[in-house]
Structures are given as C-alpha cells and as structure tokens.
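Structure in, sequence out. Go:
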C-alpha cells in the first residue's frame, strides 16, 4: 500500500542522514563551536529502515549528513541500497549530498556501487570567499576537483548547491552562472532558511528567487523550463541552451503543496517536514523489537501527521526542533 498523506500527497522520496558529523563549519549552518549531537547508527539499521520504506513506495533515496563521506563503509551501504527494488520493480534511484571535500577519490567507487547522482555543496567560486564561508582553508581546490571527478565517474547530472546570504556571497550569482556553463554542471541557488545553529536568520538576509533571476538576466538572458510538480527547484536555462540554473525558494515561493519527502535523522528519527517541531522515533521502535510489519504500520501513522506547509516569515512561525546539520541536508 503506497504512502499517501492526509492531504493526498504521495510520499516517494526519502532523505536519510548517516551522520551529523561534518568537517566543514559553514556560517549558515554551524556555530563553529558545536560538534555532532546525535549518535550514528550501524548501517544495517539504516538499511532496514530504508528497505521497509522502499516496500511502502519510496522510489528515491538521498544519502545526507552532516558529511556522509566521513562514514567508513558508506560505499558498501550504497551497494546494499542498490539491491533494493522499488514496488514497481524499477531500480532504486540513489543520490547523495556532500560538501565534496573527500569525493574526488570516492566518486568512481561510489558510481560502481550503484550511486546514480551527486550534489555538491559549494557556496562560492572564489577560493577566499569559499574559505570565509566554510571556515576551512584551502578547501576550494578539493571541491572543484571533486566536481570534475564526479563528472568523469558519470554521477550526472552533477548539481552544485549554493546557499545565498546577503552580506556573504550574493555577488557570486553571475560567477556561478559562468561556472555552470564552463563546468557543465547544474547550479542550484538555495534561499537561506532559518535552520542554522546560531539562530540569527532574518528575512533581510535572504536573497530571493526574483532577485536571483534579475541578476542572472543582467549576465545573459535565461528562461524558465518545465519541472516536475514535486521538484524543489524552479529550473532555468540560458538562451543559447548552455548551462542550467535551479532556484530553490522555500521562503519566497514555497512548494509545500506537492511535497513528496520524508526524512530520517542519523539517530533514526522520522521527520515529516524540514521545519517539524517534533520527530518520531523509528529507531526506538526497532530497539524495542518491533517487526517489519509493525514498523511499516508505525511509518504509515507518522506520514498521516505530515504538516501541510511550513510557516516561515509568518507571525506564528516556530523554528524547527533541530537545526539543518542535525536533520540531514
């Protein structure tokens, strides 16, 4: 029986965090002082959770963190995931989000293990600006090498995610447009959301979709292209067909009405929305000896509690109970 929430949205996408450890301290995410807060589980337990969810209709799995490539055994985990057929009998679509620092040497083995695509977080195409945002010196060259290695390995389309923040990197919009064209990757700009450990988010820091479009058109005309209703990004292509840009705009243009996602945190909690103020202890059910059928029933009940939408920018907005790195990107 497919997972469908009470608003009629089919749940087909799973984001599963395998650690909240990270080797970067990006200013829009971490304070720079806090480390990991939650336990990592054995891969066998993530695999069991995923297998049950795939049996309930999940078709796409995205492995996240923290930084997932810090976990030893991640390549074998991908290999085991790739053996799970969807309810339609099609191969499971497996992707990963990474900061790219360790990806260059792992891209080919990950592809061979069954990873389909990779998204690399990269918030500037200027080495000094990159170091200021990540608080990691000399990381830029590693990430650029990893993007190119991912393309060579066939982990395509390679997507590069950039979180824009006024006062930090809004001047990188046009350079990223050039980067997309030169490197043959899809660049996706993400509006800054209130999910950072410092809890200093304000609407004034958000660089909105409309501003990004205006700025990019100053560089070269580009036009919106069709996208699936459940996709998070609005997609654009330059007028000559070279280079694609996506814009994920949960603040200025929310897309909650077609959300198809649930998340599992590194300590085994289900979150039905990125901005949930509570989570649901799937791992606790496992630890107490629940059968697969009982876990499936628990998941079905949780999905019925999925929120209709977030309330960012509204008077009744309550911050999520966890920050982004402790949820899973």
């Amino acid at each position: 029986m497919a997972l469908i929430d009470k608003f009629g949205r089919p749940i087909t996408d799973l984001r599963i965090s395998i650690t909240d450890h990270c080797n970067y301290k990006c200013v829009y995410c971490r304070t720079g002082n806090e480390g990991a807060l939650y336990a990592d589980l054995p891969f066998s337990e993530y695999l069991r959770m995923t297998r049950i969810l795939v049996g309930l209709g999940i078709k796409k799995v995205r492995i996240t963190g923290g930084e997932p490539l810090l976990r030893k055994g991640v390549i074998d985990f991908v290999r085991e995931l790739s053996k799970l057929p969807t309810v339609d009998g099609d191969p499971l679509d497996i992707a990963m989000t990474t900061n790219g620092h360790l990806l260059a040497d792992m891209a080919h083995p990950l592809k061979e293990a069954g990873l389909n695509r990779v998204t690399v977080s990269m918030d500037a195409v200027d080495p000094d600006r990159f170091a200021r945002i990540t608080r990691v010196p000399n990381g830029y060259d590693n990430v650029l090498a990893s993007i190119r290695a991912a393309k060579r390995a066939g982990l395509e389309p390679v997507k590069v995610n950039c979180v824009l923040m006024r006062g930090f990197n809004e001047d990188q919009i046009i350079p990223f447009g050039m980067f997309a064209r030169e490197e043959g990757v899809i660049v996706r700009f993400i509006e800054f959301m209130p999910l950072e450990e410092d809890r200093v988010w304000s609407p004034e820091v958000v660089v909105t979709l409309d501003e990004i479009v205006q700025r990019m058109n100053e560089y070269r005309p580009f036009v919106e292209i069709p996208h699936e209703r459940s996709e998070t990004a609005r997609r654009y292509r330059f007028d000559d067909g070279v280079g694609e840009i996506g814009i994920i705009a949960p603040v200025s243009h929310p897309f909650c009405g077609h959300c198809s996602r649930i998340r599992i945190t590194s300590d085994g909690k289900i979150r039905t929305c990125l901005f949930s103020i509570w989570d649901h202890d799937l791992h606790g059910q496992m630890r107490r000896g629940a059968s697969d059928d009982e876990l499936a029933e628990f998941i079905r009940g949780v999905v019925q509690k999925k929120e209709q939408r977030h309330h960012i920018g509204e008077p009744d907005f309550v911050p999520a109970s966890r920050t982004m790195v402790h949820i899973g990107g």
